[in-house]
């Protein structure tokens, strides 16, 4: 949920980009990972969550964004969203810096409450930034509380399971 919260918060500065594109960019490494798992011959699975792999993906997303939307600032923002994914994952997981490289990260997944608090904070900040976007209409702002409840519920299920532990 934290990746989506970062995308929601980024919308404040990247308003011309469709929300779907921001959400896509924020989880691109995970989507790349799924693609690599489904088609092992691509050989991308081991690199999706490494620093070099994320940099390549960020550049690709930035180039596509520049070609479609014709604005360098938007392209940079979309690329940074891809990189934010890896930065966030280094807090929650332990991942290699590069293929067969050293494992780094706080691995907060091993401590569900710590991970939940980090994710909840990210959700709160991202949604606050989203809600403060000057172009949002009042009814959309009212829905932010519903989005918060849904995101926090899904995060709690991720961290603690349906059985609460």
Structure, explained:
68% of the residues lie in helices and 2% in strands. The chain has helices at 2-10, 19-38, 51-69, 72-92, 112-131, 138-160; strands spanning 95-96, 103-104. It has a two-stranded antiparallel ribbon with strand order 1-2. A hairpin with a 6-residue loop joins strand 1 (95-96) and strand 2 (103-104). Helix 1 (2-10) packs parallel to helix 5 (112-131) and helix 3 (51-69) packs antiparallel against helix 4 (72-92). The two termini are 19 Å apart. The model has no long low-confidence stretch (mean pLDDT 91).
Topology:
Layout lengths: L1 H9 L8 H20 L12 H19 L2 H21 L2 E2 L6 E2 L7 H20 L6 H23 L5
Antiparallel strand pairs: 1-2
| Mean pLDDT across all amino acids | 91
Oligomeric category: single chain
Q: Tell me the number of strands.
A: 2
Largest sheet: 2 strands, antiparallel
Tell me the distance between the termini: 19 Å
Shape label: globular
Strand order of the largest sheet: 1-2
Count of helices? 6
| Share of residues in helices | 55-70%
Low-confidence regions: none
Structural class label: mainly alpha
SSE topology string: HHHHEEHH
Beta fraction: under 5%
Rg over C-alpha atoms, rounded to the nearest angstrom: 16 Å
Provide the descriptors you would attach to this structure in a database record:
single chain; 165 residues; mainly alpha; two-stranded antiparallel ribbon; 6 helices; 2 strands; globular
What is the structure about, briefly put?
The chain is mainly alpha-helical and 165 residues long. It has helices at residues 2-10, 19-38, 51-69, 72-92, 112-131, 138-160; strands spanning 95-96, 103-104.
